[in-house]
From TrEMBL:
This is histidine kinase. GO terms for molecular function: ATP binding; phosphorelay sensor kinase activity. It comes from Thiocapsa roseopersicina. Residues 60-130, 369-439 form the PAS domain. It catalyses: ATP + protein L-histidine = ADP + protein N-phospho-L-histidine. The keyword Cell division does not apply.
Length: 772
């Protein structure tokens, strides 16, 4: 019994004792006392129960406080503004602050800045929905107290019923480890999927490469490639269409692969006319970066082989060196959703297929090139051979066998030593050495020229065969000589024709010189008549003096000396005429162009004086010897000088001037130019000026300039004409410098014309033909 019960009993006992002393009470009073005792007992009982409940409540409150503070999750209360009203120790620990510092502060302060807008939306949703709401938020990096890495909290919030103002109960759960586990699991799944995809891709590319090298025939390779693609994508049918060009009029199915029992007819080797749906499909495939899934079903129903495909995947295959093609995959029996892995695989296969198509195009081109080479090699109109560095034939064509009279087996067992004329063998070896070393060959190739050699071969029957040989070296990647290619052309007929033409040309040149002499006959006769008249006069005077028996012999001596001089002059004139008209062989030799120019002027000196023409010779400094024949070059100059004088017949005598200019033309040539002040080139056709039988002169043959060009060309020079800036025309030609074999003998060969006396009656050599 408690102290309160004892005090109540003592008080009640005292009350009863006083009533007894006061006398016996009434029954009513007794009953009232009894009821009071009963109520007291009840009150005491209730009081004991209340005390017991209070003890239980105190114990429960202590247990709840422990559970609240040390719960595995955080509990907190926030108001509508998001400020913390109450929080347990676990929640404070999660937020990384003490409980006292957290009370009254905004919860968003401890949330990562990027997630604060989510917290605001979460609080508003919890207030308005009046239902439990959850979200995941990240703590600020410097707020996390448990881990160094960024923490993730799960918030489960609900509005407290009847709270005024509104309060929200929030449960905080640390889900960082769970999120990390989920992330790691996803990464493992992604890695596994990527590994599977890589394995599928790598194995697919390896299978494509193996299929590309399994056969040499391009069609067999294409069929094998499509079977690999169709198997890798587990498609019912695969086809390759070309060309993938919207402007094509029709397309052709290059190859096809299908599973056994695939519905529809085979597609291989079909031609499909171009229509608008197919054109749109091709444009879409060419412009798309990824394969097209389930494109327009109306595009090319024939591609289904007569069976409507349920799922299609189309991609453009674009080789670098060939036309684009269109790769298609059909799922005919069931509908299919193409995964991202399928798209990636098809994209990679299309790229690899493009590379293989490039290789096939190169292989096809090589095959066609080999076939063309064989056909060209065997059917060539000239002899072709391949020769190794040791001189043996590696390959010869049919024409070379026909030229030399040997069979292929006989030629392949021989070298060129027994096939070349002994006199030409050393020259052939030097030519081959130059070609192999690449000296003159590279220089000629840079100039766009092909170096060749004319030599004599000995046929099987012993006959001499003139051939033109052109060789080119073939080197490996390291620059070493692998073999040489030789092209041999039978030029025996041409050589015979050239020999005949040479004889005819020299005869024509002689006729031309004689014709020139005929044109100058009157002037030559006048030129020869002068010394002969002097001889006759001086001889008559000498005879008269002898008849009169003069006492002085000195006048006779002077007369006889003058007779001798005039006779020598007449003899030189006749000798020049004979040398100019004599038949001779034209052989290149070193010539002095200045001396030849003066000789040519001396030959036509009578014409010069008759036409009152002034001739000037200008010679450049350090002039080398040229290469040519002196008589033929003199003929060229005489023709040009006579043409110049004839062009100035209608020009006043004071303007009749001919100028011969001799100077260097680069490092390897000498240029001679003959300029006049005549009518010019306006009445001529420049393209036909040097053609045979073309002339603008009345009574002309048109052979003079043609012979000039033939002579100059034969010595490796060039002749041309152009207007003279001061009026008239300029005819110029070049001759190569003479390259002496023996440097000790560099003097030019002197012809009688060069050695002739060039003094023209005391006038200076540089200005000839001044009008008298």
């Amino acid at each position: 019994m408690t102290r309160f019960d004892q005090a109540s009993d003592a008080q009640l006992t005292r009350l009863l004792a006083e009533l007894e002393r006061a006398g016996s009470g009434s029954d009513e009073l007794t009953r009232l006392v009894h009821e009071l005792q009963v109520h007291q007992i009840e009150l005491e009982q209730q009081n004991r129960e209340l005390l017991a409940v209070r003890a239980v409540l105190e114990e429960s409150r202590e247990r709840y406080a422990d559970l609240y503070d040390f719960a595995p999750v955080g509990y907190l209360s926030i108001n509508a503004a998001g400020r913390i009203q109450d929080i347990n120790l676990t929640g404070a620990k999660l937020l990384g602050q003490s409980r006292d510092r957290l009370i009254g502060r905004a919860l968003s302060t401890y949330i990562a800045p990027d997630d604060r807008r989510f917290l605001k939306a979460h609080v508003a949703d919890a207030i308005h929905s009046q239902a439990c709401r959850s979200c995941e938020l990240r703590l600020r990096p410097d707020t996390a107290a448990i881990r160094e890495e960024l923490q993730t909290l799960r918030l489960e919030s609900a509005l407290e019923a009847g709270s005024t103002p509104a309060r929200i109960r929030v449960i905080l759960s640390d889900i960082t480890e769970r999120k990390q586990a989920e992330h790691e699991r996803r990464q493992r799944d992604i890695a596994a999927a990527a590994a599977e995809s890589r394995h599928r891709l790598v194995s697919g590319l390896e299978r494509l490469s193996a299929a590309a090298t399994a056969a040499f025939d391009p069609q067999a390779v294409l069929n094998a490639l499509l079977r690999v693609v169709q198997d890798l994508l587990r498609a019912d049918r695969a086809w390759l269409l070309s060309p993938c060009a919207p402007d094509a009029t029709e397309v052709h199915i290059l190859a096809e692969a299908a599973v056994p029992g695939c519905p529809g007819e085979p597609l291989f080797d079909r031609t499909i006319p171009m229509d608008d749906p197919l054109r749109r499909l091709i444009r879409s495939a060419l412009s798309a970066s990824d394969p097209l899934q389930d494109p327009d079903p109306s595009a090319v129903p024939m591609l289904g082989g007569g069976f409507a495909p349920r799922s299609r995947l189309i991609v453009a295959v674009c080789p670098e060196g060939d036309r684009p093609s269109l790769l298609g995959l059909h799922q005919c029996r069931v509908e299919r959703t193409w995964s991202e892995d399928d798209i990636t695989l098809v994209r990679a296969l299309a790229g690899r297929l493009a590379d293989i198509l490039d290789n096939l195009a190169v292989r096809r081109a090589l095959t066609e090139s080999e076939e063309r080479f064989r056909a060209t090699f065997e059917q060539a109109a000239v002899g072709i051979c391949h020769r190794n560095p040791q001189g043996f034939f590696l390959r010869v064509n049919r024409k070379l066998c026909d030229i030399l009279g040997y069979t292929q087996e006989e030629l392949l067992a021989r070298t060129c030593r027994g096939l070349v004329h002994p006199e030409d063998y050393d020259g052939l070896m030097q030519y081959i050495a130059r070609i192999v070393e690449g000296t003159s060959y590279d220089r000629d190739r840079d100039r766009g020229e092909t170096q060749s050699l004319e030599l004599r071969h000995i046929g099987k029957s012993g006959q001499t065969i003139w051939c033109n040989l052109t060789m080119a070296p073939v080197r490996d990647s390291s620059g070493c000589l692998s073999y040489s290619i030789g092209v041999i052309e039978d030029i025996s007929a041409r050589k015979l024709l050239e020999e005949r033409e040479s004889k005819h040309r020299h005869a024509l040149f002689r006729v031309g010189r004689i014709s020139t002499m005929g044109e100058m006959s009157s002037a030559i006769a006048h030129e020869v008549a002068q010394p002969l008249m002097g001889i006759s006069t001086y001889a008559g005077g000498a005879l008269e003096r002898l008849d009169s028996a003069p006492t002085e012999v000195e006048p006779l001596r002077l007369a006889l000396r003058e007779i001798s001089r005039l006779a020598s002059r007449a003899g030189r004139i006749i000798e020049r005429i004979r040398d100019f008209s004599r038949q001779h062989a034209s052989t290149p030799r070193p010539i002095d162009l200045e001396a030849i120019s003066r000789a040519a002027v001396g030959m036509i000196e009578p014409e010069i004086r008759t036409n009152a023409v002034k001739v000037e010779i200008r010679v450049g400094a350090d002039l080398p010897f040229a290469s040519g024949d002196p008589v033929e070059i003199e003929q060229v100059l005489i023709n040009l000088l006579i043409n110049g004088m004839e062009a100035m017949r209608d020009v006043p005598p004071t303007f009749r001037r001919l100028c011969i200019t001799i100077e260097r033309a680069g490092a390897e040539q000498v240029r001679v130019a003959v300029s006049d002040r005549g009518v010019g080139l306006d009445q001529t056709d420049p393209s036909r000026l040097f053609d045979p039988f073309y002339t603008t002169k009345e009574g002309g043959t048109g052979l003079g300039l043609s012979m000039c060009r033939t002579i100059v060309d034969s010595y490796g020079g060039r002749i041309w004409a152009k207007p003279n800036p001061g009026g008239g025309a300029v005819f110029a030609f070049t001759l190569p410098n003479h390259l002496p074999v023996n440097t000790t003998d560099q003097s030019p060969a002197k012809s009688p014309a060069i050695l002739a006396d060039r003094k023209l009656d005391g006038r200076p050599d540089t200005a000839i033909g001044d009008p008298q």
